Amino acid sequence: MTDETRTPTQIDKIADAWVDTLAELEPTLATYIGRSEYNDRFGDYSPAGQERLIAEGRRTLAALSEATAVDDIDEVTKDDLAREIQLGIELHEAKWHLRDLNVIASPAQDIRSAFDLMPTDTPEDWSVVATRLQAVPGAIDGYIQTLREGIAQGIVPARRQVVEVVTQIGRYTEDGGFFSAFAADAAPAEGQLPASLARELADSANAARVAYDELAQFLANDLAPAASEKDAVGRELYALHSRRFLGATVDLDETYEWGVEELARMVAEQESIAHEIKPGATVEEAVAFLEQDPARKLHGTEALQKWMQETSDRAVEELGRTHFDIAEPIRRLQCMIAPTKEGGIYYTGPTDDFSRPGRMWWSVPEGVDSFDTWRELTTVYHEGVPGHHLQIAQAVYNRAQLNSYRRLLGGTSGHAEGWALYAERLMEQLGYLDDPADRLGMLDGQRMRAARVVLDIGVHLEKQRPDGNGTWDADFALDFMRRNVNMPDEFVKFEVNRYLGWPGQAPSYKVGQRIWEQLRDEVAEREGDAFSIKQFHKRALDIGGVGLDTLRFALSR
């Protein structure tokens, strides 16, 4: 980062205005990036709301096309923002919004999860929460209108996703579920809430519960009977989603074959390390051996959170002295147990002013109470430093040079998750995974990501199964995943359902890592003896969030 503040250009102003537009039209997105002025409401999830969003995208795209870049930063912004908006238009024209329902990242989850990131320290904060809770019924109603339009046009999600989301909503709305617990836990640090506000919160939370129950009834009674029995979305739609999550165009058939080869390589590497852990052992035997080691086991979410935080703090402190320039605001990373029990581990970035720090979240499924440190050490590096937190928080910190789009909204899953997998391998190279057990855990994750490339493309493009017995389907995908990961079956089932309903996202991790490594090698070859890996990392991270095609373009300049 340079201390010299950039004078905003015409393209910077267009990009910043686009962020303002998105914040207004998608208040949950505004909450995610730390803008609080829209925290009391939701956007319009109806077909009319979608049309307005696309109209604003077309207007911004036209303004970008007429603007002239004045420097390299402008060139990158113009290239990336135009790609992003154009892709959104293409997805809209493919009518994806009419079938946008899955188990992890659709309005069914986004409306609820907005509350996870809202401030709750003061009575004033809780008053805003109550107002947004009152807005849940309207948001749900708009979403139902959109899904109903999908039914009318015969554009519907897979039945599997509908059934799973109905079950998910049941956990939100049951006694002791998210909404009742959220309102009951309202107790700001400076004192109890006024009785009138506590009643308002309880009433608002109950209204939100009722709205979600109505969504579940619509899903079960109206959408499920009309939904598709097929999980595959097909090549054309899958190609759009692949571009969406990578910010790059790849040959899907070549990528599938590469995924098969990469998976075989991960298996061979795991087998070699298994012998180091226990001579002559298979991978399964080495895993069983490690799972019996009490020194590598954590019990309960409190112990898990404490271990995550201590591991993260140590990595930040040590890497900040030796391998990375980590500014003071970036050094704060909170490790959290998520309020849901859906499975999955994820990261949320800091607000623009770092008043809310970056956070690593662990959503622990019901019934899971023990955790293996050898398996999860690399996860902390993936989500924290040098993974997501270093990458995303560095872009936020670089406000003197980057507009708000580049700091807060730019980038793709392939850019972010590809970097995080790249970071896992980097930590191995830096000696943080010298223990064979920790390396086995890292490879367990890498193997899973390679398997997802094969599974995701295989299912959605309905390719021939690796065993030659027909085409990929959900049952084979679940069996395939069980054979390639070592994790509780609750995680495996959730993961496979996620891939089936969120096409193109799962492969973006491993394919993104592949592209990051290709770019590093291209720059190293071009620069020869002058190449510095530390400088490459700094230069790449200072670019901020971009698609991987834009990253390649930027690093070639």
Give the end-to-end Cα distance, rounded to a whole number of Å: 18 Å
Note the total helix count.
Answer: 23
Query: What is the residue-mean pLDDT, rounded to a whole number?
Result: 93
Low-confidence stretches: none
Order of strands, main sheet, comes to: 2-4-3
Structural class: mainly alpha
Q: Which band does the percent of strand residues land in?
A: under 5%
Please outline the major beta sheet. 3 strands, mixed
Give the radius of gyration.
23 Å
- Helices and strands, in order, run as HHHHHHHHHHHHEHEEEEHHHHHHHHHH
Shape estimate: globular
> Percent of residues in helical segments?
55-70%
**Number of beta strands:** 5
Oligomer: single chain
Q: Can you describe what's shown?
A:
With 557 residues, the protein is mainly alpha-helical. It has a domain at 242-509. 64% of the residues lie in helices and 4% in strands. It has 23 helices and five strands. The strands form two sheets. The protein has a three-stranded mixed sheet with strand order 2-4-3. It has a two-stranded antiparallel sheet with strand order 1-5. The radius of gyration is 23 Å and the shape is globular. The two termini are 18 Å apart.
